[in-house]
Fold this protein.
Amino acid sequence: MESKDEIVKTIPRTFYERDTVKVARDLLGKKLIRTIGKQTISGIITETEAYRYADDPASHAYRGLTPRNRAMFEQVGKAYVYFTYGMYFCFNVVARNHNFAAGAVLIRGLKPEKGIDVMKKNRKTNKISNLANGPAKLTQALNINKKQYGVDLAKKTELYITSGLDKKKKIFASKRIGIKNGLHKLWNFKISI
DNA sequence: ATGCAGATTGACT
DNA sequence: GTCAATCTGCATA
């Protein structure tokens, strides 16, 4: 017998082949799933940020291709993971249309669903509201690091994305967090669940 | 509730 | 050498 979970499909690659800002909005409410052996950790995406290319001075890709950001230039629907502040990882989904050579969506927040006990252990806290409500928190909770650089999120492997909420939620747009340039762009998107 | 220092290292100029 | 798409704990109010 197959359980319901096993027949859920990933979001197809074409979804990510659209404007980075649109993809960022549309990723809200989708489900991010991490499998580690038999263990499953998942959550609903509640906050995202779009980072584009030559028009976006806040983007890692702004000054062109480097070893770190190369995933942003490669196939859409894959993971771009980077290390920052000497101790954290941030997780992005590569997304762009044909007007841009690079682009990615930073996943900034999740509402935990499955594997909450594991998240608590990974995050060393019992407060559910503090498990995955930040870009470096969710990578800790889901045990995401450089090993997941380039992982294909359109394929059901160790890390992937599926449809989530059915109902459309109200989207709040604001300034992106923790950057110095490109602050006039309202490319931070949130929903409240 | 708001604010700030400190942690800690790799990527880039 | 500089500084980062951040988080935590502690301080003040």
Notes: The mean pLDDT of chain A is 96. The beta strands of chain A are 31-36, 39-51, 79-84, 88-94, 104-112, 159-162, 172-174, 188-190.
